[in-house]
Amino acid sequence: RGQRRRGQRRQPVGRSPTSRGHLSAGDMLLLLSSSAPATSRPNILFLMCDSMDGRVVDPSAPLSKLVATPTFDALASDGVNFVRTYASSPQCVPSRASMLSGRRTDQIRAFSNDNGLALSPGGEPDEACVSAYGEAWCRTHGASQALETTLFDELRSGGYEVALFGKVDIGAGVLRRFGPAPTQDGYHGGASLPIVTRAADVRRPTKPNPLELVDDHAAHVHPEDWKVHDRCSEWLRAKGDASRSSGGGGGPPWFLYCSLNIPHPAFRTNATWLHAVDEAAVRASP
């Protein structure tokens, strides 16, 4: 097993109204690795999904008692659980771009799923941005966003092996600059009525018929996510095999980003996963 920071569950200190209100990507890297010895930095497993209620994995929240999440509980007990953090936007692209740049949505001028980070930190236009709006617009808009770095870039420059699987959706040339298999470009084809008006009701389903994804006889409710799951698992197993064959030493520390699409509106599941819900404890709204 790769090294992880151990410690008790933490309640991060709240920021005052006069604080910056955001973490730079460099701050995030420092936060993740500063407590580790310089010669033994921790490996980092970054799990990402779209619309899961964070209270499910907050042991202090009553909601966490309604659903059995043994794997999440085990990870939280063996690491740090930031239960007071929150998404900066209800939509994919602005929220993810904010999180991975360490800057607020108003600072990076990203307010909708048709508008990610137009330039890479090195100033190269994002390919999906150019396809949707043209290079001149992307360079102008990118200058107003003033992106300095991303969490991925900071980790790579800090000596980490960075591996991305699944949905990233921020632009910044990430799909071109990182591997092995990041998806979603952060522009969703550019401005269109369904994309621009999605902010009016983020609960709207984005799949044409989500009921077709539900099968009570299969645990793999959303097949595309299970493919990402399998690739992440294979990558981890390969790392474990390599570590054991070398006696546990050698090679840089790694950062594995494993991102899934579900849970995502419309929320559909099946009997396999509903079995983890304590229905007797669920209280319906009046």
Account of the 3D structure:
By secondary structure, the protein is an alpha/beta fold. 32% of the residues lie in helices and 8% in strands. It is built from 11 helices and 4 strands, in the order αβααααααβαβααβα. The chain has helices at 25-33, 70-77, 92-101, 105-108, 127-133, 135-145, 151-157, 174-177, 193-196, 223-245, 271-274, and strands at residues 44-48, 161-167, 180-183, 254-259. Strands 1-4-2-3 form a 4-stranded parallel sheet, with helices on both faces. α1 (25-33) packs across α7 and α5 (127-133) packs across α6. It is globular. It starts with 24 loop residues before the first helix and ends in a 12-residue tail after the last helix.
DSSP helical segment count: 11
Q: What structural class do you assign from the helix and strand content?
A: alpha/beta
N-to-C terminal Cα separation, in Å?
47 Å
Estimate the mean pLDDT confidence: 80
Percentage of residues in helical conformation: 25-40%
Envelope shape: globular
Order of helices and strands: HEHHHHHHEHEHHEH
What's the story with the biggest beta sheet?
Answer: 4 strands, parallel
Question: Strand sequence of the main sheet, in spatial order?
Answer: 1-4-2-3
Over the alpha carbons, how many angstroms does the gyration radius reach? 20 Å
Regions with pLDDT < 50 over 5+ consecutive residues?
A: 1-26
Oligomer: single chain
Give the number of DSSP strands: 4
